[in-house]
UniProtKB/TrEMBL annotation:
The keyword Acetylation does not apply. The keyword rRNA processing does not apply. The gene is ilvC. Substrate binds at residue 270. Pfam families: KARI_C, KARI_N. Residues 10-199 form the KARI N-terminal Rossmann domain. This is Ketol-acid reductoisomerase. Keywords: Amino-acid biosynthesis, Branched-chain amino acid biosynthesis, Isomerase, Magnesium, Metal-binding, Oxidoreductase. Its EC number is 1.1.1.86. Pathway: Amino-acid biosynthesis; L-isoleucine biosynthesis; L-isoleucine from 2-oxobutanoate: step 2/4; Amino-acid biosynthesis; L-valine biosynthesis; L-valine from pyruvate: step 2/4. Its cofactor is Mg(2+). One of its GO terms (molecular function) is ketol-acid reductoisomerase activity.
Length: 348
């Protein structure tokens, strides 16, 4: 375990150098890893595990698009692809990668096959942390562990194929066998993580729900739209409003601060821009902070979890989500984006 200094605070980080793939294979050589669910994380994690030489099977509802996708990806029905119950029976490690709402519904089936010494693995602290709402309470004689890739399962797979790893956080909720640490780290390496950051189930779910509702997904759309609207309301054309709000951010300025920090991005802009940005970052911060605090409280109280459980357990939740995504796609700002993207050098 390496100790690293993050802005003056020391934290534990596991590196691939200290826990190489060969060691991970040795730790898990007698295990059958059953990946349950083949949505977004399921394919990324199971294919990386398979390519890394682990003994892995997939459990998925029979029929339907995701079963077909698993077959297309080379999982063989009756050999490495089973219905959920059979995969749970065969697995010594059960990677529970159904959507968080579906985990509640399928829990009785999984629980039945959690015999002594098995491990139950999550990629989110949701089910365990909000157990009063999910009813997910594992038996005391199994390991309960977490590896949460900090990004989409799609990126986990593409970055693995590029020979890079996506960073993940890891946690141990219950160590029944004395092997929970070795198991969780070996799985973290196996699914294609780069570095593994230590956390707890609760801290993982609180930060993850805040991040996706906040700067990563919810707040970013709110911020961009507010600026786009103000520009449009003041007579600016769609292309001008979009270029000045989104395109310049993602194509020019975001890569600069991703690479070398915000001060470096600022330093590569005009002195006029730097003066204005340094003056306005304060007011924006002060306006947004109360909303962030409200969001965190809503996460902590379980309110956000309950909203997601209630909506995502409706039979028509997929079509409702798709309808909301359609409205976003067809908004003027994101329709302008379609035309602007065509003008990028790589699309010409
Ligand atoms: N999407 C992502 O990239 C990330 C997801 N996670 C976590 O990983 C876990 C899995 O998430 P996703 O891959 O997004 O899941 P998902 O929403 O793509 O669903 C996974 C699978 O659940 C199956 N499923 C849905 N309802 C079912 C039901 N009632 N019975 C049986 N199967 C059902 C679907 O067929 C699908 O194969 C969750 O805990 C999530 O929070 C963590 C990091 C990123
Ligand atoms: C991709 C990811 O880590 C998210 C945004 O938290 C999620 O999909 O839940
Ligand atoms: Mg996340
Ligand atoms: Mg999330």
């Amino acid at each position: 375990m390496a100790q690293m200094n993050f802005g003056g605070v020391m934290e534990n980080v596991v590196t691939r150098e200290e826990f190489p793939l060969e060691k991970a294979r040795e730790v898990l050589k007698n295990e059958t890893i059953a990946v349950i669910g083949y949505g977004v994380q399921g394919p990324g994690q199971s294919l990386n595990l398979r390519d890394n030489g682990f003994n892995v099977i997939v459990g998925q509802r029979k029929g339907g698009k995701t079963w077909e996708k698993a077959v297309a990806d080379g999982w063989v029905p009756g050999e490495t692809l089973f219905d959920i119950e059979e995969a749970c029976r065969r697995g010594t490690i059960i990677q529970y990668l159904l959507s968080d709402a579906a985990q509640i519904e399928v829990w009785p089936t999984v629980k039945k096959h959690l015999t002594a010494g098995k491990a139950l693995y999550f990629s989110h602290g949701f089910g365990i942390t909000y157990k009063e709402r999910t009813g997910i309470v594992p038996p005391a004689d199994v390991d309960v562990i977490l590896v949460a890739p900090k990004g989409s399962g799609t990126s986990l797979r593409t970055m693995f194929l590029e020979g890079r790893g996506l960073n993940s956080s890891y946690a141990i909720f219950q160590d029944a066998t004395g092997r929970a640490y070795d198991r969780v780290i070996a799985l973290g390496i196996g699914v294609g993580s780069g570095y593994l950051f230590e956390t707890t189930f609760k801290r993982e779910v609180y930060s993850d729900l805040t991040g996706e509702r906040g700067s990563l997904m919810g707040a970013i759309q709110g911020l961009l739209l507010a600026q786009y609207e103000v520009l449009r309301e003041n007579g600016h054309t769609p292309s001008e409003a979009f270029n000045e709000t989104v395109e310049e951010l993602t194509q020019s300025l975001m890569p600069l601060f991703a690479k070398n920090g915000m001060d470096w991005m600022y330093a590569n802009c005009s002195t006029t821009a730097q003066r204005g940005a340094l003056d306005w970052m304060g007011p924006f911060h002060d306006a947004i902070k109360p909303v962030m605090q409200r969001l965190y409280e809503s996460v902590k109280s379980g309110n956000e979890a309950q909203i997601s459980i209630d909506s995502n357990s409706q039979p028509d939740y997929r079509s409702k989500l798709n309808e909301e995504l359609r409205q976003l796609r067809e908004s003027e700002m994101w329709q302008t984006a379609v035309t602007v993207r065509k003008l990028r050098p790589e699309n010409n």
